[in-house]
Amino acid sequence: MIVLGIETSCDETGLAVYDSEHGLRAHVLHSQVELHAAYGGVVPELASRDHIRYLLPLAEKVLAEAGIDKQQLDGIAYTAGPGLIGALMSGAALARSLAWALDIPAVEVHHMEGHLLAPLLEAGAPEFPFVALLVSGGHTMLAHVSAIGEYELIGQSLDDAAGEAFDKTAKMLGLGYPGGPVLAETAKSGRAGAFSFPRPMTDRPGLDFSFSGLKTFALNTWERERRNTEATEQLRADIALAFEDAVVDTLLIKSKRALEQTCCTRLVVAGGVGANRTLRARLQKLAETRNYSVTFPRIEFCTDNGAMIAFTGCLRLQAGESQPLDIDARARWPLSQLEALKH
Ligand code: KG4
Ligand code: ZN
Fold this sequence. Notes:
Blueprint: E1 2-7, E2 12-19, E3 23-31, H1 33-37, H2 44-66, E4 75-81, H3 85-102, E5 106-110, H4 111-117, E6 130-135, E7 140-147, E8 150-156, H5 162-172, H6 179-187, H7 212-226, H8 232-262, E9 266-270, H9 277-290, E10 293-295, H10 307-318
Parallel strand pairs: 1-4, 4-5, 6-9, 9-10
Antiparallel strand pairs: 1-2, 2-3, 6-7, 7-8
Helix pairs in contact: 2-3, 4-10, 5-6, 5-7, 5-8, 6-8, 7-8, 8-9
The chain binds 5'-O-[(R)-(carboxyoxy)(hydroxy)phosphoryl]adenosine and zinc ion.
């Protein structure tokens, strides 16, 4: 089965062709980072318009790169939520219209399920069950995954998501947008031990997260210390490092706890913050010392992309799922509402 996947939930237009026999055939991405940078964050209306501008040319490009004609497609998969409603609708409209014109099924894909299954695109994908650590701009969660579509939420953020905390802290430090990668880059010149930030909610049982206080801690440190120093560049880097360290450590402690609690030995990491190299290295080390396995998507599939949507949609289409012609998208969509695959 050959499936075209379309991702437009936020600020990346991602398209991909996934072939159930030969794997991923092509993927293309247009990032809107430059468009939104001037505003310090995503402007929803601009995002929708930009998706509309790029969707058709990218669809043609990805089909050409996959070496197929649109008539060879067996199905279309698109992100139907959660996300920005206008952005979602632009992808949904193309997916539904194309499916109607080609007389093939189209399937809605849950954006977070896409992230969660992205590591399975890689060679040596883990078997079920596993624990998934999902760390994106909008969500932080730990889930026990027993099969595709069977996700038991065992921990989540009570306030800011990990990526959101990176973005907001970077903005406070005057590092610009998007915050995660630039903060991580700045942290490289930080001095270890210059500051020590708290590891929120690790001193009590449970798997929930709270990153909002950490962001305030970073702000207070920045406001207090900058009055006493000329070396603001170094101070910025020291705070970035202390912040990154605290977030990574917290994610590490909770992932370890989740593995112990569920008696799982396999951890899968997904979502934009999964691109963080410190997080990857420290989780890898944990896995080696404890005999766990840890799987990450390749860096480009940690952040939003069409490949994860084409792949997830293909699995659901193969199981006979598809939805009627209505063009529908959901700004909110709890992962717990997904149904297990029918065999
Ligand atoms: O999964 P994603 O592309 O979009 C959502 O579904 O939210 O995640 C984007 C988030 C942003 O908050 C971004 O700052 C963060 O992932 N991010 C990172 C890194 N690369 C992206 N955070 C920390 N370190 C990185 N290297
Ligand atoms: Zn995402």
